[in-house]
Amino acid sequence: MNPFAKKPTPRETIRSSKRELTNATRGIERDIATLQQEAMHANTSVATGLQSATKAMGALNKQMAPAKQMKIMQEFQKQSAQMDMTNEMMSDSIDSILDDDQAEEETEELANQVLDEIGVDIASQLSSAPKGRIAGKKVQIDESSELEQLEKSLAALKNP
């Protein structure tokens, strides 16, 4: 700083401050205008992108037919539920059949009744059956006598 320089008057200091303030304000206003312009360009780009996305979604909706897809999904759910119910009913039926001892007893009683009607006594035949290994004999049975025997058994079953 120069000690011999003239000191500015208060009026000159105020004018100088006003000039600096005006220049700073103009610079800020230029920055604001630049930022606003950039924001407008960004908004335009976003709008263009949204427009393209809207067109693409419209084309996709035409191809996919959302109402048709919804109907197909509902039909699938209905069929799936029906299949589950059928599967459960079949499983319950099989379980009840396999667990039913009464049916097994009835079957055994019916088989014994049929065997009694045709004159077969299993218990006596099993007790008189030889135990151990038996050498097999080849015996030829006349086909006509075998056929007659089968016919007699059939007649006995028909006429109790």
UniProtKB/TrEMBL annotation:
Matching InterPro entries: Snf7_fam
Xref: Pfam families: Snf7
GO BP: any one term: vacuolar transport
Region described as Disordered: spans on this chain: 1-26
Gene3D superfamilies: 6.10.140.1230
Protein name per its UniProtKB record: Uncharacterized protein
Compositional bias (Basic and acidic residues): 9-26
